[in-house]
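Propose amino acids for all 139 sites.
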C-alpha cells in the first residue's frame, strides 16, 4: 500500500471516529448511537452488511440489537445461545476475529444464513466490552 493510500485510510478512520463521537455527545438515544456506530464501522471496512449483537436476558441469549443489510428483518428474529457461533465465541473470549471463509469455521452458526437467506462469506467480529467483560459483538 502506498503512502497516499495509507493516509487516505487513516483520514477515513479518524473521520469515522469523529462522527461517532459527535453523535454520542449530541444524542442520548442509545438506538440512534448504536445505528451510527454500525453504519460508520461498515463504511470503514467497506462491508455490505453488519450486525451489532448484544448479550441479554441476564446473559442467557445473544440477540441482534442493530442490523444493516439485505436480510435485516429476518436477522432481527434470530437468537443465539451464549458461545454459539463465531459471535458467541468472540463474546465468550473477548477476542476479535477475522474469518476469511465462515463456511470453513466449525463454529459458524449456519442457521443464521438459513433464517435470513443471506450467504455470509467472510466477516470481521469485534467484542464490545463493559465493566463486567464482553457485552456484545460488532460483526
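Proposal:
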Amino acid at each position: 500500500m502506498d503512502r497516499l493510500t495509507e493516509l487516505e485510510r487513516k483520514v477515513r478512520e479518524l473521520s469515522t471516529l469523529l462522527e461517532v463521537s459527535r453523535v454520542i455527545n449530541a444524542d442520548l438515544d442509545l438506538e440512534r448511537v448504536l445505528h451510527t456506530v454500525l453504519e460508520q464501522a461498515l463504511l470503514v471496512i467497506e462491508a455490505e452488511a453488519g450486525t451489532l449483537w448484544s448479550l441479554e436476558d441476564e446473559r442467557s441469549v445473544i440477540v441482534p440489537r442493530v442490523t444493516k443489510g439485505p436480510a435485516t428483518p429476518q436477522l432481527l428474529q434470530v437468537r443465539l445461545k451464549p458461545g454459539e457461533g463465531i459471535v458467541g465465541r468472540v463474546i465468550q473470549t473477548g477476542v476479535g476475529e477475522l474469518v476469511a471463509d465462515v463456511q470453513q469455521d466449525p463454529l459458524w452458526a449456519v442457521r443464521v444464513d438459513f433464517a435470513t437467506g443471506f450467504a455470509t462469506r467472510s466477516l470481521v467480529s469485534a467484542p464490545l466490552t463493559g465493566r463486567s467483560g464482553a457485552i456484545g459483538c460488532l460483526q
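The first strand starts at residue 50 and ends at 56. The radius of gyration is 15 Å.
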